[in-house]
């Protein structure tokens, strides 16, 4: 029998997905690719499939099915399309770990289906826990499924907790780079364009996450995700701006000591740890040199200027479907900003209006989350138009 872990990568053509394939390629004795999925990028999905020979692939956009089938079926690779196929393929018996690297709300249902099938989750889709954290974590506990965080900040916390699971957390400290507009005031932000917002100083990410980082919504979503991953209260989550992005996050324990996980900004490290846990595999990734960073600095986040962080804490405090509203509204406004239909500061205004106007549900079911997401998207578009 093989000791290799069989990996399904949901979103294999995105930033996390492509880096995950690099990790798998560098450790062929530990991992094998079982499933690859993409939404639109048929050409890259075909290239990846020819190289890694998965058992099956799914293309979300059904218009590309024939193109992919004609190339991959002769190679013995099963080809499926559409959302229902994505939700089904994650339940394959041959899968050990599902890496959820889809962007946004789209990751929720496939992740739930994978958990229901008893698959361990490497979670790079923070929206899954933002939208339905209580439901997802309860289901994972019921099914005996582990959720391994892939976000660098949550991976850092997880790494700091190894060997400490019996010790209560006093608080966690999420670090934020501050994005491309760190230190800027609202006057400056009134006129910024997407080209400026897409220039992240430290990380190479997709457009949606990069805009979220510029607005501090990415950190707000991470605050909510951390609450569910580590079973925390709102007052146990703190955020500090750390422009160098060397300390990826910290945990403070009840004896006042703080553990920090450090390293050069490289998403392959948390990806590999999530896939290989509890082992640490050898890598040839660049090593951190303290002499290259003689100063590590920290600042308070400016949540008055960057309202999204405050809105995320507000949603976290309300619980229920509030974070689902926050996430859906944010996805709509980010898309609108990338299409030059809304201003940078206007995004926060629409999100705040949605939180005030969309029906609040205190104890939502999955159906409630789905209907809340739909209602919020309609309402957000009305506010934009």
From TrEMBL:
Name the positions where Mn(2+) binds.
151, 153, 222
Q: Which cofactor does it need?
A: Mg(2+); Mn(2+)
Instruction: Give the pathway listed in the UniProt entry for this protein.
Output: Isoprenoid biosynthesis; isopentenyl diphosphate biosynthesis via DXP pathway; isopentenyl diphosphate from 1-deoxy-D-xylulose 5-phosphate: step 1/6
User: What is the name listed in the Swiss-Prot or TrEMBL entry for this protein?
Assistant: 1-deoxy-D-xylulose 5-phosphate reductoisomerase
Q: Which residues form the 1-deoxy-D-xylulose 5-phosphate reductoisomerase C-terminal domain?
A: 147-230
Instruction: State the species of origin.
Output: Marivirga sericea
Q: Which UniProt keywords apply?
A: Isomerase, Isoprene biosynthesis, Magnesium, Manganese, Metal-binding, NADP, Oxidoreductase
Per its record, what are the GO molecular function terms?
Answer: 1-deoxy-D-xylulose-5-phosphate reductoisomerase activity; isomerase activity; manganese ion binding; NADPH binding
Q: Which gene encodes it?
A: dxr
Q: Name one Pfam family in it.
A: DXP_reductoisom
